[in-house]
C-alpha cells in the first residue's frame, strides 16, 4: 500500500511558495482525528462541529475486513489441506475462490509489512529463495500438474493467513486509508489483473479482478452517505460507473466463478480496462471527504 | 467533470486565503483563475508560478509570510509577464478554430476518440468540459482547483508546469460515425460526409482508422502537446476512449529560424504549393465551409482528412538522386520545380527537354497533385517515427498527412484518386491509416465546441 504521495511538480512549486503557511505536509501520516482537525482549521468558515466523523465508517470497514479475514483463513485451510492430501483437482478448484477474500481487503494486508509478499508475491517480485505463498503453489499445480513438494509451502501459507487474521485487529484504519485503499484496489486490477499477469499459470485473473472491485465497492458503500453530502454528483457518478463495470464483467461469470483469462479477446480486455479507468478516475476524488 | 471545476466570474485571479488559529497564512484555494481569452490575462500562468517561487518564495520561506507578502508578490507577477509569454499564446476562441490556418507549430499530438456513452447530454457535457480545459491549457494555466490538496490527485497532471503555452492549439472535429443515430443527430450529418473511399494501393489497418471525434493538438513543445492530450483523455474517461493516436514532428524553429518550407522524411520540401493562409478570400474558397454549403452548423468550419502514410525509407535510400527528383518532380536541394532554380519558381508542366520529353514526368508527385492548378487543399502534415516494424525490423516512419478543405470529395478525394493510381511516389509509400473529421467553427466566449451542432 503506497500511502505516501508522489508530489508532482505543480504541487512542489506551491509547497515552496507556501511552506510555513500551515496547510501542507502533515496530513498524510496522521490518524483520522488529526486529519479532521486539519480540515477544520483550513476551512475557517466551517465550524469544527460539522467536520465529518468517520468513526462509524472506520468501524464498519474494520468489521468487514475481519469477516473477510475469517473466511480467508477458513478457505485457505481447505485449499492447503487439499494440496497436502494430493487432491490436485480439488486444490485447483479451491485456489481462486480462496484468494478472493484476500483480494477484497488487500490494502489492509499491504499495510501489514511482509504479509503481502509472503502471501501474494509473484515469481520475480521477491528473491527466488524467499518466494512462497499462493503463486508459488499455483505454479506447481498448473505448470507441473502436481501437488508434490508443496507441503511446506502450504503450511507456511496457512500460518501467514492466520497471522494476517491476528494482525488485522491491530491495523490502524482511518478514513484516509479507506479512500486511498479503494483506488489502490482498482490500480491493482489495472496494473496486473486486467493484463493477465497476476495468475500467469492458472489464468484465474478474473476472480481477483472481481474481488478487488468488490473490495473497492465496499469502501464506497460505507462512505457513500458522507460522500453524497459532500459532492452528490461525484457520489452518483461513482455509483453509476461501478454498475457499468459490473455489467462489463457479468458476461464472464461462469457458475460461481469466472471464465479463464485466456478466453478473453483483446478488445474485451481493452474494454474492461477502459471501464476500470473510467471508474477509478472519479473514485480517486473521494479524498474530498477528508475535509477539503 | 470532476476535479475540473473552476470558479467563474472572478474579475482577476485571487489567492483566497485566511489565517488559521496560529495566525499563519493558510492558502485555502490556490485557484489561478483565467477566463480572459484576450491574452492580456492577469492570471498566473504555469511559468509565472515558477518565477514567483524564485522571486517571492524566499521571503515566504523565511517567515515573512502573510497576506501582504503574497499580494505584493502577486502584483509583481504582472510586471514579470513578458511579451514572449503573450506571443506564445494562441487564443482558443475565434471565428474559426485555431490550428487550421495557424502556421504549423513544431509538434503534433493527434488523437481519435470513440464515444462510449449513448447519452447526448453526456457528449455535450464532455464538449463543454473540453472547451474549458482547452482555453486553460492553451493559455498555459494549470487545470482545476485541486493542485495543492494533499488528499486528492492533482487536477492538473503537472508535466507542463513551468512550461510556456508554446503556441498550443487544440482543434476538434467529429467523424461520420458521430452521426450514426446514437445521439439523434443523423439528420444533421452534412450531405456526402462519409469515410474516404478505398483508394488504389491502400493498405489500411483498423488500428489507424476512423474515430467518432478527432483532436489535433499542436504546440512548439511535444511535452506541452502531450500534456494537453493526456488531460483531454482524462476528462473524457467514462464518456469517450482513445481509439488511436499519433505524434509527429517537423524541424523546429531553432533548427530553422528562417522558417523555410519543411522537408519530409524523404528529404524533400513538402508544402511549397500550399495556398496563402493570409488571404481571407482564398481561405474562404478553399478551406472554410460556407453556410451556403450546408448544413448551417458547419459554417466557418472545415473538413479534415488524416492519412497515416508509411514511407519505405530503406528502399528510398537506395534510389538514385535522379530517380528521387523525378519521383517528386522537384529538385531535392532547392525544392525548385525540375529545370528551375528557386523553390517558388513557377511550375511549368508543359516544358519539354531537348529530346521532346516533359521535364517534369507526368506521373511525378507534383505534376499529379498540381493538375491544372484549379483544385487545392491546405496541407498541414507532420513527420512521424514510431519505432520499428516488428515484422521486418524496418523503421516505421512516414508522414501524418493532414489536410483541411471546404469539401472533402471535390478537393482531397479528387486529388488523391489521381495520386493513388499513377503517382511515382507510390513505390515508396503506403497508406496505413485514414480518418476524416468535420471540424466545427470556432468558439466564442461563453460558447463551447460543437455548440452550433447541439
TrEMBL record, chain A:
Q: Which domain of life is it from?
A: Bacteria
Instruction: Report the residue ranges that make up the Imelysin-like domain in this protein.
Output: 57-286
Q: Which CDD domains match?
A: Imelysin-like_EfeO (cd14656)
- Where is this protein chiefly located? other
InterPro entries referenced in this protein's UniProt entry, alphabetically:
EfeM/EfeO_iron_uptake, Imelysin-like, Imelysin-like_EfeO/Algp7, Imelysin_sf, Iron_uptake_EfeM/EfeO
Q: Region (Disordered): which ranges?
A: 28-49
Q: Where in the cell is it found?
A: Cell envelope
Sorted UniProt keywords: Lipoprotein, Signal
Query: In this record, what's one Pfam family?
Result: Peptidase_M75
**Where does the signal peptide begin and end?**
1-19
Cellular component GO terms held in the UniProt record: cell envelope
Q: Which family does it belong to?
A: Belongs to the EfeM/EfeO family.
Q: What is this protein called?
A: EfeM/EfeO family lipoprotein
Q: Which organism is it from?
A: Paenibacillus polymyxa (Bacillus polymyxa)
From TrEMBL, chain B:
A single GO cellular-component term from the record reads:
cell envelope
The entry's free-text remark on the cofactor is: Binds 1 heme b (iron(II)-protoporphyrin IX) group non-covalently per subunit.
What domain of life? Bacteria
Q: What InterPro entries has UniProt attached to this entry? A: Dimeric_a/b-barrel, Dyp_perox_C, Dyp_perox_N, Dyp_peroxidase, EfeB/EfeN, TAT_signal
Question: According to its UniProt record, which cofactors does this protein need?
Answer: heme b
Enzyme's top EC category: oxidoreductase
Catalytic reaction list: heme b + 2 H(+) = protoporphyrin IX + Fe(2+)
Q: List the keywords (alphabetical).
A: Heme, Iron, Lyase, Membrane, Metal-binding, Oxidoreductase, Peroxidase, Signal, Transmembrane, Transmembrane helix
Q: Where in the cell is it found?
A: Cell envelope
> Quick one: where is this thing mainly located?
other
Q: Name one GO biological process term.
A: iron import into cell
- Write the Enzyme Commission number(s) for this entry: 1.11.1.-
Instruction: Please list the residue ranges annotated as the Dyp-type peroxidase C-terminal domain.
Output: 261-443
Residue span of region Disordered: 1-43, 252-280
An example Gene Ontology molecular-function term: ferrochelatase activity
Pfam families in alphabetical order: Dyp_perox_C, Dyp_perox_N
Give the family this protein belongs to, as stated in its UniProt record.
Belongs to the DyP-type peroxidase family.
This chain's function reads: Involved in the recovery of exogenous heme iron. Extracts iron from heme while preserving the protoporphyrin ring intact.
Name of the molecule in the record: Deferrochelatase
Upper taxonomic classification of the species? Bacteria, Bacillati, Bacillota, Bacilli, Bacillales
Q: Which gene encodes it?
A: efeB
